[in-house]
Write a structure and sequence with these properties.
The complex is a heterodimer of chains A (186) and B (876).
Chain A (H helix, E strand, L loop, with lengths): L8 H9 L6 H20 L2 H17 L10 H20 L6 H7 L14 H12 L3 H12 L4 H8 L3 H21 L4
Helix pairs in contact in A: 2-3, 2-4, 2-7, 3-4, 7-9, 8-9
Chain B lengths: L6 H8 L5 H13 L1 H17 L3 H20 L8 E5 L2 E6 L19 E2 L5 E7 L4 E9 L6 H8 L10 E5 L18 H31 L16 H6 L10 E3 L7 E2 L5 E5 L5 E4 L3 E3 L8 E4 L8 E9 L26 E7 L6 E2 L2 E2 H4 L19 E3 L5 H11 L14 E2 L5 E5 L5 H11 L11 H7 L13 E9 L7 E9 L10 E8 L10 H13 L5 E8 L3 E9 L3 H10 L8 H14 L6 E8 L10 H13 L3 E7 L6 H10 L4 E4 L2 H10 L1 H5 L1 E12 L4 E7 L19 E4 L3 E10 L28 E10 L7 E8 L10 H17 L9 H10 L8 H16 L2
Parallel strand pairs in B: 22-23, 22-25, 25-26, 26-27
Antiparallel strand pairs in B: 1-2, 2-6, 3-4, 4-5, 5-7, 8-9, 9-17, 10-14, 11-12, 12-13, 13-14, 15-16, 18-29, 19-28, 20-21, 21-31, 23-24, 28-30, 28-32, 29-31, 32-33
Helix pairs in contact in B: 2-3, 10-11, 11-19, 12-13, 12-17, 15-16, 19-20, 20-21
Classes of the chains: A mainly alpha (186), B alpha+beta (876).
Chain lengths: 186, 876
Amino acid sequence: MNGVDGKSNEAIIRSVLGGDAEAYGRLVERYRGRLFGLAFHLCGDYDAAGDLTQEALIAAYDSLDRIRDPKSFPSWAASILRNKFRNQKRKRQAPTVSLDQMMEAGFDPPAPDCPPGFSDEQCRQVMQCVQSLPEKPREALILRYVEDLSYKEMAAFLGVPVTTVTMRLAHARRSLIQKAKEDGLL
Amino acid sequence: MIFHPSIEKMSRYLDGELSPRQSSRFEAHLQKCPACQANTRFLKSAGELHRPDEKRLDAVTENVMSRLAERQWSSEAPVVGQIHSVSGIVLLRCGPAEEGIEAFPGCALREGDRLEPIHGASAVVEWAAGGRLRVKEVVDLGPGAEALPARNQRAPKAWSPRKRRLALIGATTAVGAVLAVSIHLPNVQEAITRDRVVRARVDQRSVASALEGLYVDNSTYSVARTVNSATVNSPVTVVQKTPAASAEAAYVTDLSKAPPILSTDGSRFAEPITGPPQRHSLDGLKALGDLSSGAAVASSSGKTPRWKGRAVRIEGKGETGAAGDVIIADGRSASAPTVDGNYFVHVRDLGTKELIADGSSWERKQFGPYTYDPTNGTTSCGDVWRVKVGSPPEDVHRRQTGAFITEAYDRIVDNPFLDVRENPLSTFSIDVDTASYANVRRFLNQGRRPPKGAVRIEEFINYFTYDYPAPEGDEPFSVNVEINDCPWNDAHRLARIGLKGKEIPWDDRPASNLVFLLDVSGSMKPANKLPLVKESMKLLVKNLTENDSVAIVVYAGASGLVLPPTSCDDRRAVLESLDRLKSGGSTNGGQGIELAYKMAADGFIKGGVNRVILATDGDFNVGVTDQGALTRLIEEKAKTGVFLSVLGFGEGNLKDSTMEKLADKGNGNYAYIDTLAEGRKALVEQISGTLIAIAKDVKIQVEFNPAEVAAYRLIGYANRLLAKEDFNDDTKDAGEIGAGHSVTALYEIVPAGQEAPTPGVDPLKYQKPKALTDASDSGEDLTVKLRYKAPDGEKSKLLEFPVKDNGAGLDKASTDFRFAAAAASFGMVLRDSPHKGDATLKSVRRLAKKGKGADPHGYRKEFLALVEKTREILGE
């Protein structure tokens, strides 16, 4: 898969492995959006999503020499990101680190990046609606929302057929409209 | 009846996945169906809501790339090596060698490798000239044997552990190894490989024996002692010709990742460039580095280079095609043609890739004349390969200052001489900070001259403890004044005002409520940051008891409470929480501070020590970065009795000025911790002073007697000056003094009768010069006035001490006087102060030697070593 800047993933990865760390920046630029989307879907918080995306990209860099198919860099990085998230979650359940409790207690509530024209309250409500969707459709929807990917690109990224992507997005939107109506948002 | 299109259609429409025809049909429906319109609009806006700010995405790129860059240039690389030292034998464990090039059977070291000898010391490896690695420093980790295993377990991360092996290295050093580089082209790669293997073996043994030697000499690993010496720039010399130097200068050859071939000039090459070389005359070329075979060059026509390449070989005019095309033979002595100009360079194009050439960047030499220096340590590698890295350390620094180092220092202007008749009063706030000295020491130990703004002379002076008599009675501190000849100006006198805070025995201290606020963001990962924070804090915790409580708040992307206020009779819980901390994420210092203050307020102990201890590399890169808002918050909290101490860690990002201000506003002190020894100084030896304030808002006002003094100059304290009216104004904040702290201020005095080195002003037209009082006949030079408040007090108390100059010469000066003068003149030399007079590093050394005194902790000895180091750096 070639990006707008033309160079194939394979070529970039080869120069990164050849020692040109800077070249990795191109891969980051190219795929940060969808990885961030995935991270946001998992964390439900922009700050945490940013951190997770970074960690995943660094980890991907570290094991770049083990990638089997350079073409599949995005989905490969996505699996690294998912693993990272799972590890983080497991670690957070360690009994004495009460980071989670603290967050629940209401310190530092994640401030939504509310675009102009929406009140914070509206933002929060809509986000909550999206957060309450079933996992797979939500993943697809958030990914689509965070970065304008074509269904084909999304399918490749998520490792599912295009029809599945179409179904999931439709499912997500149907549920979202329903929920919005229940909550009086629509 | 209207048939609504399916949600799937709407969904695909929104995502632009409908064909144009389907799309316009759907739009036609929308025109007449308000319900579908509403749904579509809602779904669209929900999408907009989720679109993250572009800045967040940019931050991802920026953070990832800067972390990769940081890793490349600093010692953040994972821990992979271990040197175990047992009774004269050094065991070296390290990762697998790459591509069949082994330094030792199965062993290779690379940049950032941490050598961990078992005597509680560890050595950090860094880049040296010529692409070699050297031992950067040996850090004494103290009796921290427990700490090491944990680090070691994490170590192998980046290495595949399958080939790990233990190699036994005798302490003998085989330095006589032959290093001749074969220059027969067909064999050159093989020869280089062989050369590197030999060199690496020698180097690793040198490292091992250097470490061992250190241990034997000092029966401990010296604290933060740099093992390398000035021989950095000629590594070949070290190995080849001066075996004796190897104990001092230990190198490990770079055997780092990936590239199968190294050029001997340290540039790493990967990816052979194919195609025949082209011949160019030098007129059309710009050298990106010193021009020699293997150096990078570019075409010079126009502003943008048309292409860049690497010189394959260089020929002198008239010698075209001569045998032995390679010009530089062994890295130093060159069989190069010496006629300038008239060279032809065979070049292979490297395409558009930006080159980092042998320590010079394209920017530097873009339009300047190239130089051809046959003594430069470059050799041909016989073939053209793409360059990866290869730069001498000073260049790494230069590039870092351009790109990665974001340390911030305020500009400091030295206080000028003031005429006593115009300005009889000198008023300032005391300052017990010591960070500047430790930070400058870090620069010097890295072989770099510190920025002038990083040198705060008062912190140099106050880094050292002075043996002033303890206060008597109820006074919280004693005041000691000594006047002697000024060492750097024969005509002047030097007055030292020394304050000594009351000692409070550790066991008698009030109960304490401490909140550690620790930065765990990604930038804290290097060994001299979070790991050092953890070890330092552990030292502190180990001295706390059931009367003390500790809470731990961390901040990175989000801030969190890691440990609620916990009494230190359960010290283990605190230590374990510290152990568990890991770095990662971006930093939001602002919110962490709020949470820390909340914890401190929750556990507030009336009459006790309530203090937030912030440990950070100074980064607040998300959220509240506004210094103003932050300092206001801290100031407010200080008024409620919760003070703030700041511990600065690491390098590259140190916001020195911010941290000093924060501590200043928070009624606390700021210490810079670069080694565990420094951590021990701040958090164990001087802990009473760090934690227990015995007086706050301590201000000094000195009135000079015009009958005795013509002019004066306060040395240092440039950012602590107060207006004379502030002295009696209790609402004006000033510095605190901790238990056992000593604070020293120096005045350079121009005695009456001499011309004052001040510009002077015209006589006043409407006023006569003020008449002198009878007291001016007293023979007193000056009167020191002090104001201070009790730690929880609101009203200040006044102390006054008249001082006479008994005319003593420097030979009568106390050791402490000499040493304080030495510290001050060292600072002046480093700042290149206009007032440094005759002060040179030599005179600093002389003063410090005579002023060394008992020096129980060895800090003054270390000072002397640092002065020596500075002489090397400044070439004095």
